[in-house]
Structure formats: C-alpha cells, structure tokens
Amino acid sequence: MKNEPLTIRRWPRAILHVDADSFFASVEQTVNPELKGKPIVTGAERGIVTAASIEARALGISRGMSLSEVTARCPQCLLISSNFENYGLYSKAIFNILRRYTPDVEEYSIDEAFADLTGTRRMHHKSYIDIAHDIQNTIHTELDIPVSVGVSLSKSLAKLCSKFRKPRGMTCVPGYLIHELLARTPVGSIWGVGHNTEALLKKHSIKTALDFVRRPLYFAEELLGKVGVDLWQELRGDVRYGVDASAKQTYGSISRTRTFTPPSSSRDYVFAQLIRNLEYAMAKARRFGLATSRLTVYAKQQNFRSTAIELQLSQPSSSPLDVTALLREHFHHIFKEGHFYRATGVTLHQLTPQSGTQFSLFEDPMRSLKAESAAQAMDSITAQFGPGSVFLAERLHLGCHATSNKASPLPTLEKIAV
Ligand SMILES: [Mg+2]
C-alpha cells in the first residue's frame, strides 16, 4: 500500500514554481561582481539579515539574524545596505522571462512565481522537464540569478518540488511519482500548514504528507474543514488553487538623483542636469523591458528646499523624447530664477512591461548597470525636443521648507520598495 502510486496519470496539468536562491544577496553579487563567491548579507540599514548569500549560509548565517551576531560568528562577512530598486527590477525581469513560455504567470512574491505550463509542450517542442531547464538556464544566463525550480501537477506540489533541492535545484514530479515526493515531505513542510495544524496532524499519527493523503477525504474535511479538502486534493495532483495571472498593482520604481557642485543658478544648466537624470532612469527602464506612465521630478536648492512636480503620461513610455518637451514647459514650477540649485532628481513610477519588449535588452544587465556613465547620458541631452504625447496631470509642491541651514530630508518620493 505504501508504495502504490496515488495516480497513474503523468501530466494532467503542469504547474511550475520558481524561487530565487538568496535573492537580495544574489542581486548584489550580480550587480557588484567583486562580491561574487563571498559571504555577504543584505539588510545593513535595518540591523538584521534580510538575505544571506549562499557562501554566508554555509557559514551558519541565516535570515533574521542580528548584524552583531553575524559579525561575531563570521567577521569576514560583508554587510550590504538593501537596494530595493534593483531587487524590484530583477524580479520583474524573472517574471518577464517566464512569460516567454506561457502567459499564465502569477507573481507570488518578489522572488517567487507560479507558471501554468499545461499544453505548451507542442509549442516549445520540448518536454515539461526540458522547458523547466530552459527557464532556469535562461534566468541564469541573462540575469545571473540562481533559482530553484519545481514542476508538478498543482501549486502545492510545485512548491514542495522547488524546496526539495536548493540552491539551483530542479525537481520535476509527474503524477505517477507524487507518492515518492510526499513520503519524503514532513507535514510541517506542506505549503499552508502552520505549527497548530502540524501539531493536530501529528496527534493523529500523520507525520508525512503521504500519511495525510492516504487518509480518506472525509477525514481531512472533518479535521481541517475546507482548507483540509483543498490541501488533500492539491497534494494528490487535483488543482484547487489556480494560477492567478492578473497583473500585480505593486510596481517598482526607478530613481535617479544627482548632486552637483558648485550650486548653480543657471536655468539651462539645472535643466540639463535634470535631463541627464531622466535619460539615465529611462535607459535603465528600457534595459529591463519596462515603461513608465507616471514620473516625479524635483529640484533642490542650495538651502535644501525641494520642489517636485508629477507628470502623468497618456501611455506608458521609456523614451525621454516623450517627456522632455513637457518637462521644459513645466520646468518653471520647480526652478525659480535667482535661486541656487544643488541637485535634481527623477523617479519613474507605475512601471509595466513594455509592449513588444526587445528581449535582447536583457542580454547583459550586469554590464548595463555598470555602464551608466554620466558622460553617456550627457551625449543625448541635445537630442530631446521630440513631440510628446503627454500632459501634466497634477502639480505637487513637496518642498522641505527648511528654516535653517540644516539638511532636511529629501521628499519621500526618492525610493519606493516593491
Ligand atoms: Mg527565495
């Protein structure tokens, strides 16, 4: 009985789960190759570890540890401040790679996604296992981010699979082998089973996921209600939780701010500085295949006063040409003659995948990120004044009206975590 398969069906459905390994730390190592192969942790600004690199984990460092504990255990460990802008962009890039294989992609968290691959074998001329390998390799080649992948018949099973081998794991379990996977899965590791449920199941001598699904359905229902029924069926390969491909409303943002010395009262100079930031931010958006439909721009005076305006675009764009004419028209809202300015900034909000995305843009994001020299951006400042299909939606005055010479914080439009 124990070794009997739960089903003889191979792939009635094929659900893939991808989970990036040590995601924040992996992004840092990709953006700064000198961190590769080294024990690093992110979260330095918060005082606790938000991600530990594979090398740091090997030395016993884990998420949630305090930084003092990290330095005590592992003095050579490097502490890095989080850069949520980069994490958000790499996250989007992973999701966009998945969408090349199927439109049914659920952005489950910043570093996890589900994809329904059912019926895509003919299109890709490949088995589900080969498609999954392809996805993992593509993410590695184009983004240099290690991910673990699981494929099975339901979301609950796929999530168990991606956890089964880590890092850089690949676990595919067709229907007739589900019982093998479940026999190796303690009940506490099932997605959605918390401490209380685990204790309850153990009271009934249920130690593994297989023990659970070998019981009749009415047992699961009596013990855990609807959740029990859903779990029981999901673990047997009958889909209860669909892949929710509706677009997430929480988009990342891209910011670019530069301070210049000496402060300047020249309108043309300050405007050029602003355009330089705009070009940098838009270039970064294009490299990640994203377009923006809302921008905030601001200028900061020598006395640390800042004024910002918000621009809403009639359609998403990643071209500075769509914005520069409008920006010039409304520049007087943030620049006043006779005042000295020391910084400008641009933030792109509402980032969405660019239609007709050029995937070649992904080819080497690491090099691209490093190649953002100011000189490059300056080259195109003169090529700006194309006709823009944009209009000003609203004007914001987020100035920090400092009454002393003490530095006031910048407006809170600098960074938005995803
Ligand atoms: Mg992860």
Main features:
20% strand, 418 residues, alpha+beta, elongated, 14 strands, binds magnesium ion, 36% helix, 5-stranded mixed beta sheet, disordered C terminus
Task: Outline the fold blueprint.
Elements lengths: L14 E6 L2 H9 L8 E3 L8 E2 L1 H5 L8 H7 L4 E3 L3 H15 L6 E5 L2 E5 L4 H4 L3 H16 L3 E6 L2 H10 L5 E3 L5 H6 L11 H9 L5 H6 L2 H19 L18 E11 L2 H21 L2 E12 L4 E12 L3 H10 L10 E9 L2 E2 L11 H6 L3 H6 L10 E5 L24
Parallel strand pairs: 2-4, 7-8
Antiparallel strand pairs: 1-6, 1-7, 2-3, 5-6, 9-12, 10-11, 10-12, 10-13, 11-14
Helix pairs in contact: 1-4, 4-6
This protein binds magnesium ion (MG).
The site of magnesium ion (MG) has 4 residues, from strand 1.
